[in-house]
Fold this protein.
Amino acid sequence: KQEVTQIPAALSVPEGENLVLNCSFTDSAIYNLQWFRQDPGKGLTSLLLIQSSQREQTSGRLNASLDKSSGRSTLYIAASQPGDSATYLCAVRPYSGAGSYQLTFGKGTKLSVIP
Amino acid sequence: ETGVTQTPRHLVMGMTNKKSLKCEQHLGHNAMYWYKQSAKKPLELMFVYNFKEQTENNSVPSRFSPECPNSSHLFLHLHTLQPEDSALYLCASSQDLPAGASITQYFGPGTRLTVL
């Protein structure tokens, strides 16, 4: 059974710092890995999606990497801002045949960026 | 109205009540999902509908009954719930794409459910 772990569970940094969030998964047979952001009382917003054949994806100040063989992904946030404060979720789509839309999520990392 | 909307945003119900959660997507997608997000647990997939047909049911108790009358609307009917069912229930939608493709799911804001 696929399990996704995110470390740390919570992180507090001063504004302007660069930071890294970690995600690990137990089964490397995945279609893709996705990073989401969740603001309090709100749904999830997709940030980056990395296909299993890719090594990284970038969007603005965000860079996500994927090392499928070791079951790890990182989300790098450059020059953090208070508006980045949110919970960041990592999810993998396991390779389980045609028609499966299953996503397995981690518990998330709660990020606080202090002005 | 754009994206994925959910109503109500907050719901408090007793264990003997019957209520329904509603989800509507305005993205032209064909697949819709219900997720449960409990405190201190990962997001859990409950049901998946593709072209109005249920394709996945992750061993969800029968006190949760989904309904998908068309590709834009999804309901979750609730009856005789337990206090441990209190959680944030999230709806999502996505395009129907072949297996292996990049499917991005778009999420609604969720319904915060409290069962007394």
Summary: The CA atoms of residues 3 and 26 of chain B lie 5 Å apart. Chain B touches chain A through 30 residues (CB under 8 Å). DSSP finds no helices and eleven strands in chain B.
